[in-house]
Amino acid sequence: MSQSTFDDDDLFGEAVEEMREEVESHLNEAWDALPDADDIWETSADNVLGVLNGLRSSLDAGDAEDHLRQAKKQFVLGKRADAFDDAEDLEEEIAEVEAVVTMLSDAHEQVGELASTIPELRTSLESDDEDDDE
């Protein structure tokens, strides 16, 4: 059995390694929580509203936001403590995940707005068609 050391530098080094592993773990979990590309591309709906509702559901970032938040918290803590010697790769990956989550969120909102407009538009067009028939 190896002897544990309680030297401040050694403990700090271990803590930094654990912090980096935690950031990387949360980033991996964030990537895994994102929807698959096929889920937002393929559909089996019978009409436009079904397509939009299915798309809106598939554009949910789910737990990816929570994992991204946890990764960023640990990263900010480590960065402010000047703990990371090489934080650029973590910073880049955080930015990549954040960009995807932001795109998903924006698309989710846009599709939601469209999904709520389409039924109203259809009703208006149907009433116009009925007026023309009279």
Main pleated sheet: none
What integer value in Å does the Rg equal?
Answer: 24 Å
Helix fraction, binned, reads: over 70%
Order of helices and strands: HHHHH
Q: What's the domain count?
A: 1
Number of helices: 5
- Which residue ranges are poorly predicted, with pLDDT under 50 across at least 5 consecutive positions? none
Given helix and strand content, the structural type is mainly alpha
Shape: rod-shaped
Distance between the termini: 92 Å
Strand content: under 5%
Query: Mean of the pLDDT scores?
Result: 90
InterPro entries: DUF5790 (IPR043808)
Keywords: Coiled coil
Organism: Salinirubrum litoreum
Coiled coil: 80-107
Q: How would you describe this structure to a colleague?
A:
It comes from Salinirubrum litoreum. Residues 80-107 form a coiled coil. This is DUF5790 family protein. Keywords: Coiled coil. This protein is an all-alpha fold and 134 residues long. The chain has one domain (8-133). It is built from five helices and no strands. The protein has helices spanning 8-33, 37-41, 48-58, 64-80, 88-133. Helix 1 packs antiparallel against helix 4 and helix 3 packs antiparallel against helix 5.
